[in-house]
Write a sequence for this structure.
């Protein structure tokens, strides 16, 4: 405010009012404090998420969730009070607890004897598919044929196994004939092998080949002065190794399973703790090992056994050298029935 003084000079009076200007106020401090608080809460939340386990976080979440019965319970509509609110249109009354009458299935009526003479109502029966035993019993009772067209055997009051059809019987007979021809061809091949090789010709008289009901049996016999194994032991001689190698090469041409059986004579075993049973089994197992070394697959070996002196080749001479032998049998695959 300017005034003129008595001397003609201008006097300026300045009045300073109390209070800060708008841009010097403290509102921004409040906003900044809120921002810092929010950031602190955010980083605290991130730290808690990283420092707690899943179970701890689930517990924290359950702590802050409301747990009143009104919120936790629900009705058929998924909301409290059956989904009704004070603002719903219509009568403000819930019918969730009202008794409703519905038509259900007709009850089964059980009639007692001498109660009344009213007959029971027929009930429709639905039969399911018959089982295997029921079908079998019906066919046996009716005298029907089996799956292959052949007749069914009967007797004993129980259903028995099917009898093979003529076609199946013919196929089995044809397979048996083919196998018989294969075994006979192997006999001829073995004989030709022993005749053609001079080293084997001398051993031919110690080899007995025959076709038995169980298959092709090749028996390697001992002779006087020409043993197959060491005396009282199971170590094979060079003669035995040569004969077993020849048999293994011939057996490789057929897929038949193989049975190896050891035999001894009736002379008692010299020694304590062992017998002819042990000796025959050990020699049969030694033969099995030689067959495996000469290319016979171990899966083809059906069995290895020792018979001691229970099946003598020369019963009239129980202590003859020919009774000490090893039998290698190629078992039949399709034995005729």
């Amino acid at each position: 405010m300017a005034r003129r003084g008595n001397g003609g000079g201008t006097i300026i009076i300045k009045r300073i009012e109390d209070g800060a200007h708008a841009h010097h106020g403290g509102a921004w401090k409040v906003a900044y404090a809120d921002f810092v608080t929010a950031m602190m809460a955010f980083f605290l939340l991130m730290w808690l998420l990283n420092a707690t386990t899943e179970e701890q976080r689930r517990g924290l979440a359950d702590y802050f969730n409301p747990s009143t019965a009104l919120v936790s319970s629900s009705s058929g509509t998924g909301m409290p009070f059956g989904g009704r609110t004070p603002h719903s249109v219509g009568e403000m009354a819930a019918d969730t607890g009202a008794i409703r009458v519905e038509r259900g299935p007709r009850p089964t009526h059980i009639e007692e004897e001498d109660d009344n003479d009213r007959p029971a109502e027929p009930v429709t029966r639905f039969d399911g598919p018959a089982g295997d035993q029921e079908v079998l019993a019906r066919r046996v009772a009716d005298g029907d044929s089996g799956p292959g067209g052949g007749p069914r055997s009967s007797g004993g009051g129980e259903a028995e196994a099917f009898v093979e059809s003529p076609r199946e019987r013919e196929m089995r007979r044809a397979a048996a004939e083919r196998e018989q021809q294969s075994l006979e061809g192997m006999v001829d091949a073995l004989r030709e092998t022993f005749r053609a090789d001079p080293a084997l010709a001398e051993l031919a008289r110690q080899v007995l080949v025959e076709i038995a009901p169980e298959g092709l049996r090749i028996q390697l016999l001992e002779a006087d002065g020409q043993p197959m194994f060491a005396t009282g032991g199971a170590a094979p001689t060079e003669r035995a190794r040569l004969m077993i190698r020849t048999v293994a090469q011939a057996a490789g041409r057929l897929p038949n399973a193989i049975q190896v059986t050891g035999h001894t004579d009736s002379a008692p075993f010299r020694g304590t703790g062992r017998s002819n049973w042990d000796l025959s089994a050990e020699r049969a197992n030694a033969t099995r090992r030689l067959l495996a070394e000469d290319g016979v697959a171990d899966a083809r070996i059906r069995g290895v056994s020792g018979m001691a002196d229970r099946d003598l080749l020369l019963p009239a001479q129980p202590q003859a050298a020919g009774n000490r032998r090893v039998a290698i049998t190629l078992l039949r695959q399709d034995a005729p029935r």
